[in-house]
Amino acid sequence: MTKIYDGLLLLGEILFLIFKVFYFISESICTMFIPVTRKSVAGEIVLVTGAGHGIGKELAIGYATLGATVICWDINEETNEQTMNEIKQMGKHSVYAYRCNVADREEVFEIAEKVRREVGDVTILVNNAGIAYAKKLLDQSADEIARVIDVNMTSHYWTLRAFLPSMIEKNRGHVVAISSAVALIGATHGTVYCATKSAIKALMEAISDELRTYSKKKSLIKFTTICPALILTGIVKKPRIRFACIMKGIAPQKAAALMIDAQRQNLKETTIPSYWLPILYVARILPNKVVSCIWDFLDVGADAED
């Protein structure tokens, strides 16, 4: 009887699993056609790393425009304060600037505590800071390799350890990580950069599942990984695009607006432009030689820096 009972119980679990799979697939299809309500960020405390220039600057401005309290972090104190001043000139005065080297663990913890005392608990963390050297692996110095890994990947661990505990305590918050489209498909001259961006994607998936597991599926903290294609920030010194008319770069302001929109929709993962996500996932299941032929035809990448 015990075996029969266990068998029926397992059958019930399988049928319930099938039901949930079809339900969530249907739900996902519906969201493609039914507009999703964007949640408000007014009154939230948003911390943006790398806010002194490029995407980070535009993210800070975008969140401030929507009524959030914005905290700007950047290693460049001058440009970071310029971002803060630009926001204040817009009439938005709930903005703060702190010089912080996100690659320095102790500095991250020290400045995070200062933020907590002077502003409050961060409710939206945007890990945006990133650097790149478009070079062959053997042409990169040990310092360059370590620097890219520390800024692009390791820093995420320090900011998460600094700000996630308060989110867990209150069971609310949102973590956004700016990865890259090359996290999904490696590229020449990106042996270090691509690897760090892939690691970010894996980290976000793992921490999201970890919180879901240990909270017994009750965690309300959201995680969004954004994988932009070419954003015209200057991080890629020599971009190479054969068909620029259909694969042109995106201005930082537009990219930032799309990123904020993705966060407000609670998207777990997206690319910018969004159509790259299904394309890149399909590319991963194609034979390697097919992908190489298509990649060679498109001739997209970055030439080596001098």
TrEMBL record:
Membrane topology per record: Multi-pass membrane protein
Regions that span the bilayer: 7-25
Cellular component annotations (GO), alphabetically ordered: lipid droplet; membrane
GO molecular function, one term: all-trans-retinol dehydrogenase (NADP+) activity
One Pfam family this sequence matches: adh_short
Main location: membrane
UniProt keyword Lipid metabolism present: yes
Keyword vocabulary terms for this entry: Lipid metabolism, Membrane, NADP, Oxidoreductase, Transmembrane, Transmembrane helix
Location of this chain's protein in the cell: Membrane
Gene3D superfamilies: NAD(P)-binding Rossmann-like Domain
Function as written in the Swiss-Prot or TrEMBL entry: Catalyzes the reduction of all-trans-retinal to all-trans-retinol in the presence of NADPH.
Similarity comment text for this entry: Belongs to the short-chain dehydrogenases/reductases (SDR) family.
Protein's name in the database: Short-chain dehydrogenase/reductase 3
